[in-house]
Amino acid sequence: MFHGLIPADRYYAYLSFRDIESMPNKENVIIIQTVGAVEQHGPHLPLMTDAAIGLYIVGKTLEQLDHDKSPTIYVLPPQYSGYSVEHTSFCGTISLSASTLTNVLMDIGDSVYRAGFRKLLFFNSHGGQPQVTEIVARDLRKRHSDLMLFSIFAWDLPNIAATLVTPHEFKYGIHAGEIETSLMLVILKEYVKMNLAEKEYPPTLVPDGGLLRIDAGLTYAWMTKDLSQSGVIGDPTEATSDKGEQILASLIASFKKLLLEIDAFNSHV
């Protein structure tokens, strides 16, 4: 029951130390550490939205893999809290400092290596911390030259979200908007309060057509309170479970393909 969305036979913490000690071909086993967040997502979504999305993608992907033909994969207990400093002005957000999250993930990586595994995937589903997991992966690679590291941001997986929402929403709906709300209507519908959903786009802090952006690329340091009073950046009122099902299916298909590539990957050629 502690494995949640992860298939029980893929949950690392259910193994005994003897299981791990005697596991064959450990250097090709893929270990996944999900990294999420516990942070405000407006008045209509639960704090665990990012963590829930990441766990759903991982769990449903593993359900679809053929156990006889698929890679051997185990998922570590989730790292729920992450680096969410941009949301700390909103009540309820639990944020680790970047240094704390870095140290935690480094220690986990060292432990995975010490157990004999040589493929570790950080699967991050919070937009505020891809840089942290990328730095950790690089530092672990430097420390352990035969450890293969993969730092994956869930929203970098190819998906069809852009085809289901307006261009304006796709560009500016970066937090608790239509896309995330649609996903949560599938993942944790009973905790989505659509009656409280409200639309709020950020003020025009940078000119349209300019080089500066709020979402990615040539961006600047912002706090959520700079962009939103409600905690929402986007329009969740247009969210539907049908859109959520389609987006999730595309994310899961991409992650399945990625896992098969990681299974075949060998950096020591």
Keywords:
269 residues, alpha/beta, Rossmann fold, 4-stranded parallel sheet, 4 strands, 37% helix, 8% strand, globular, metal-binding, metal ion binding
Structural features, described:
With 269 residues, this protein is α/β, with parallel strands linked by helices. The chain has one domain (8-264): Rossmann fold (3-Layer(aba) Sandwich). The chain is built from nine helices and four strands, in the order H-E-H-E-H-E-H-E-H-H-H-H-H. The N and C termini lie far apart (41 Å). 43% of the residues are buried.
What is the compact description of this entry?
With 269 residues, the chain is α/β, with parallel strands linked by helices. It contains nine helices and four strands.
Note the topology.
Layout: H1 17-21, E1 30-35, H2 49-64, E2 73-75, H3 98-114, E3 119-124, H4 130-143, E4 148-153, H5 161-164, H6 167-172, H7 178-187, H8 224-227, H9 241-264
Parallel strand pairs: 1-2, 1-3, 3-4
Which assembly state applies to the chains in this document? Answer: single chain
Radius of gyration: 19 Å
Strand content: 5-15%
Distance between the termini: 41 Å
Pfam families: Creatininase
InterPro entries: Creatininase-like_sf, Creatininase/forma_Hydrolase
Protein name: Creatinine amidohydrolase
Organism: Adineta ricciae (Rotifer)
